[in-house]
Amino acid sequence: MSKEYDTGDGVIRALDGVSLDLDDGEFLSIVGPSGCGKSTLMLIAAGLVPATSGTVTIGVTPVSRPVTNAGIAFQDATLYEWRRVLENVLLPVEIQRRDLKPFRRRARELLAMVGMADFERKYPFQLSGGMRQRVALCRALIHDPPLLLMDEPFGALDALSREQLNLELQDLWQQNRKTVLLITHSIQEAVFLSDRVAVMSPRPGRIAEIVAIDLPRPRTFDLIEAPEFGRYSRRIREVFASWGVFARGPERQAPARAR
Hints:
Blueprint: E1 3-6, E2 11-15, E3 20-21, E4 27-31, H1 38-45, E5 56-58, E6 61-62, E7 70-74, H2 85-89, H3 91-95, H4 101-113, H5 129-141, E8 147-151, H6 159-176, E9 179-183, H7 187-193, E10 196-200, E11 207-212, H8 227-241, E12 251-253, E13 256-258
Parallel strand pairs: 4-9, 4-10, 7-8, 8-9
Antiparallel strand pairs: 1-2, 3-13, 5-6, 5-13, 9-12, 10-11
């Protein structure tokens, strides 16, 4: 699968010959240098941007329009400031014109799972950055999608909030076993959360290497000090070093098939 943009001054190839499979229930992260097309790849998987060539499929269904069976979370929580927390979580259900009543209980269960049970009537301006991202994560999961696409969702947070949300995301994933595609600049985050880490080359983006992460779950941050964790992190850094590029922070994709 490839993607080109016409800038008016010429054509830029953002992605070139990307081929990637995700298994059901897999947690896969994508890391790569800025501008390598990571976000573009996720947007194509979500059906928000068309590929120039090639196809993406979820299950056996080609993606040709915005997908409704995926949850999407971005770096900006994009909450509606005039809606309370519970109302923001329920927004995808409203957009799909489904009966809200059976989803209210699920919304409250999700908020409780991320420590937000006491904040359902608060407005976004009353929340910290980490709390807003928790609400955005609940919103992405409210309609119980099989696929979760996350584009640097914790990139703007402080280190402690980010680590706490990594743990909460891991807990949510282990309870529900969604297929997750996470875009991140953080090698540590990718290794900590993932079953596999796909490393992308500089533009035009290609899958340079896929590193399988064989570490026990559930994972705690004590694991970061373990030699095996360091070996996976070093291997990813070696790939970046081969281009003279080093990664910095979080990234994105789906149970999708790109060809």
